[in-house]
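Hey, resending since the last one bounced:
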Amino acid sequence: MVSIDLEAVARLERAMLNSWPSLSVLHEHDWIVRLADGYTKRANSVTCLGADDSALEQRIERVETIYTDRGLPTIFRLSPLASPALETMLADRGWRRFDETIVLSANLVDLLQQATSAVSHDVTITPKPDQAWLEGCDRIDSSTSKHLITLRAMLERLVPPAGFGRINGKDGIDAQALVVVDAACAGIFDVLTTPRRRRQGLARQLLTQLFAWSATKGAKIAWLSVLADNQAAVQLYQSLGFSERYRYHHRCND
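The structure tokens again:
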């Protein structure tokens, strides 16, 4: 059982909001209502930063209207910060629970000390996503294809320093990832490796270089989130030195 530090949860939840921007944001009490044309749940869900139980029924109905008017399902992303009463009300209304997600973090100094020193591939890190990096998202993860315009618009809204990392291969990018440094927190996103190059250490090497880059920007800890049932990814991150901090899940009205 992981001991939950709610102050640390709040810090990482706010870092997530800053590091993965949506296109539109509405504040509803202590809920952050985010919309980005349906691309990714994090950018198209309600993040609860507190446990305010007041007028829950009316507030749920208000955010339902916001998403319905835009042709989107209403999704709540429920971390340990969310009100238990909200969880109960959504469950009683039949809202589907799905995609339990683990948030892991690690001290950057520890990560870099544990990293292997051997370098076998050139890692490139740029402050902006060029066309090749965006096309790599599309080529490696086909689910991104219809959302490339939205993804570009989201990434253009980034305020904190960002590093878009890649390892190039003969036919394009073989591995890529994004790190965003929000104050002392370095968030890792979109870790992708082309299928034919998986289990060859590319992701590990790329992440190590992104950790080092983050340290030069003042980051002290690295964090990321991964679906709880993605055991291969969980094992990779744990082998790098990450530990579970908390979990969140989603509730949807579809």
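The mean pLDDT is 93.

Sorry for the duplicate.
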